[in-house]
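Dear Dr. H.,

I hope your travels went smoothly. While you were away I took the liberty of generating a structure for the chain from your last submission, since the lab meeting agenda had it listed for discussion. I wanted you to have the full record in hand beforehand rather than looking at slides cold. The sequence, exactly as received, is reproduced here:
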Amino acid sequence: MKKYSLLSVLILLQVAANACPACEKNQPTFLKGITHGTGPNSQWDWVIISIMVLITLAVLFYSIKWLVRPGEKSTNHIKNFILND
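The corresponding predicted structure, in token form, is as follows:
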């Protein structure tokens, strides 16, 4: 039952995230069917989106990197107090 309710929520979120036909007509070809609204109106919008994507990818990369290999070698580090108890 839990699996079915989670699946139905995910399907509803996917349907709500797709653009409606009226919005698809106003979108550039790159974003057709992905988002609602008119999309980027000027070249500055694309610059802002590009910077946002770069920052997001950098944060994702370093988050995964530091989760997999934190790199703390000090015996006084807080993780050693937690792990050794």
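Two observations you may find useful: Helices lie at 2-17, 21-26, 43-68, 78-83. The mean pLDDT is 78.

With kind regards,
E. W.
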